[in-house]
Amino acid sequence: MCSSSRIVTRPTSGSALLGLAFGLPVVVPALPGLQELPDEATFRYDGTVEGLAGALDSASRLEPAELRAMSTAARAFAGSSSWEHVAAQTAAAFRELV
User: What range defines the domain where residue 79 resides?
Assistant: First the structure.
């Protein structure tokens, strides 16, 4: 799954999290708001068209065993989050703003 947005307004991308929950490795720009996503399930690129093309090329060349490992890591990360964790992160973000 590829998320090419250059603006991330929350600590993580909802579309990236959805992809991870389905066990999909994700391709995301290397933005501070996406650093929380696991390297074991993520292809990062520098925000350029060339960087995106390179990340997509790398993703398309995964061997089946590599894809299974990334899928397992994706699901594990997505399963580790809870509504309580999200609520705590949201409250912390609001405290920083006030």
Answer: 14-97
Tell me the C-alpha distance between 81 and 87, whole Å: 11
Q: Please report whether residue 8 resides in a domain.
A: no
Flag whether 84 is in a domain: yes
Q: What is the pLDDT of residues 60-76, one digit of tens each?
A: 999 999 999 999 999 99
Task: For residue 22, tell me if it sits in a domain.
Answer: yes
Number of domains in the chain: 1
Interhelix angle 14-21/64-79, nearest 10 degrees: 120
pTM: 0.74
Whole-angstrom Cα distance, residue 43 to residue 74? 12
